[in-house]
């Protein structure tokens, strides 16, 4: 907006000039600058629309991943393991008070007792291969906070829970 006012001010100053050729050259120069700025504005508008779309996709993905993760935790905390296997078509073993998803190989078993504890979103990572949502899970009895990763494939199908550090 300031540039438009500056343009108008320059035009008023030029109107006082007696040399029409100089005025025409300056007018052409400023019209060209305005045209360039309008093109830049259009490009920025396109970029804003693209970012809004990406944000909406990211937000939707976060909501879906969080909903499914909390639902999985509810199944685990209520010991509804058969329902979890049926609902998410996933294989795992329950042993020694923990769930072992078997993947990745370096993964520790997920302690069932953590499933009912408060958990807070730490991060969301979206990849071409899928989505990972990370949580801090509070172990209130031991005053510890655990980091877990709930992993989904590209179609948001649950894969496993990765147990991180404390």
Low-confidence stretches: none
Number of helices in the DSSP assignment: 3
Helix and strand sequence? HHHEEEEEEE
State mean pLDDT (0 to 100 scale): 87
What is the beta-strand fraction?
A: 25-35%
The share of residues in helices is 40-55%
Extended strand count: 7
* Physical arrangement of strands within the biggest beta sheet: 4-5-6-7
Structure, described:
Residues 20-68 form a coiled coil. It comes from Psychrobacillus mangrovi. Residues 1-20 form the signal peptide. Keywords: Coiled coil, Signal. This is Lipoprotein. It contains three helices and seven strands, in the order αααβββββββ. It is 48% helix and 26% strand. Helix 1 (2-15) runs antiparallel to helix 2. The protein is rod-shaped, with a radius of gyration of 29 Å. The longest helix has 58 residues, at 20-77. With 166 residues, the protein is an alpha+beta fold. The strands form two sheets. Strands 4-5-6-7 form a four-stranded antiparallel sheet, covered by helices on one side. A hairpin with a 4-residue loop joins strand 5 (130-139) and strand 6 (144-153). The mean pLDDT is 87. The chain starts with a helix and ends with a strand. The protein has one domain (1-166). It has helices spanning 2-15, 20-77, 81-88, and strands spanning 93-95, 98-100, 110-111, 119-127, 130-139, 144-153, 158-163.
Describe the secondary-structure layout.
Layout: H1 2-15, H2 20-77, H3 81-88, E1 93-95, E2 98-100, E3 110-111, E4 119-127, E5 130-139, E6 144-153, E7 158-163
Antiparallel strand pairs: 1-2, 2-3, 4-5, 5-6, 6-7
Helix pairs in contact: 1-2
